[in-house]
Design a protein that fits this description.
outer membrane lipoprotein receptor (LolB), chain A, 14% helix, 4 helices, 257 residues
């Protein structure tokens, strides 16, 4: 079942078992309430903008994300689930993602500017969506028309800061912290849908190293955490790696199912 969520929640991410573009289409917390605007720390906004500008200049980028999230069962019990996601993107319209869950199931996704293909390797099934446009356009199509929940998708937009700023109501700079031995700016934000934090590398390569979301408005207060590593900016990317590789034996299923 898919729950209709406020756009501010869907644009941040989700806490259910979904995987960037290689994920399922599932429900996220639909609880929301009005929040009063708080202080906007200028330094926090400057670091966020600097990260956005840096990544926007990259024609090609890739990274690995290890995620841990709360999957809330009907009983209200929260089960921690993990995934490892590999992403490579070539602007403006090529994307590839591989996601492996902690139960061993794997999904791959390819977008070549005209078609999105998602392969569910564990079930030997695949689905396709014909869509011509940029990666930004594709993300909007999936979120708005297919109600897809896309963790970390905001990090793939050409203007990351704009995507985030749409729902920010307070910002705070928390100083320099270590993330796996790397010095990072620690930023905390409150939004209309959730509270979230991001750790941005504190040098000439301001890439995000950690991303955390807390759905404080939901009764269960589920959380999502991602650790990002193996960043490559403007590395080599062969065009054929964005073309889908689907086994002949795979069964095609309706998109979004």
């Amino acid at each position: 079942m898919t729950v209709s969520c406020p756009q501010s929640i869907r644009k941040i991410t989700t806490v259910v078992a979904v995987l960037l573009l290689a994920g399922a289409f599932a429900s996220a917390p639909a609880h929301s309430q009005d929040k009063k605007a708080g202080p906007m720390d200028e330094k926090a906004m400057q670091v966020l903008q600097g990260m956005s500008d840096y990544l926007a200049r990259a024609k090609t980028l890739s990274f690995r994300a290890r995620t841990l999230f709360d999957e809330v069962r009907k009983s209200g019990i929260k089960i921690k689930s993990a995934r490892t996601i590999q992403v490579i993107m070539q602007r403006p319209s090529s994307l590839r993602a591989l996601a492996i869950a902690d139960n061993g199931s794997a999904r791959s996704a390819w977008f070549d500017g005209s078609k999105l293909t998602v392969l569910m390797r564990h079930g030997n099934q695949f689905m396709e969506l014909d869509y011509k446009g940029t990666t930004d356009d594709l993300l909007e199509e999936l979120i708005e028309k297919h109600e897809a929940q896309l963790p970390l998708a905001d990090l793939l937009y050409a203007d990351i800061a704009k995507s985030f700023k749409e729902s920010i109501i307070s910002a705070e700079y928390l100083g320099i912290k270590l993330v796996n031995g790397v010095k990072c700016h620690h930023l905390s934000f409150e939004s209309t849908g959730a509270d979230w934090q991001i750790w941005v590398q504190a040098d000439t390569t301001p890439v995000p190293r950690r991303f955390a979301i807390s759905y404080v408005n939901a009764p269960e207060k589920p959380e999502f955490l991602a650790s990002l590593s193996r960043w490559s900016i403007d590395g080599e990317a062969a065009d054929d790696q964005f073309k889908a590789s689907v086994p002949e034996s795979a069964k095609k299923v309706p998109f979004g199912k």
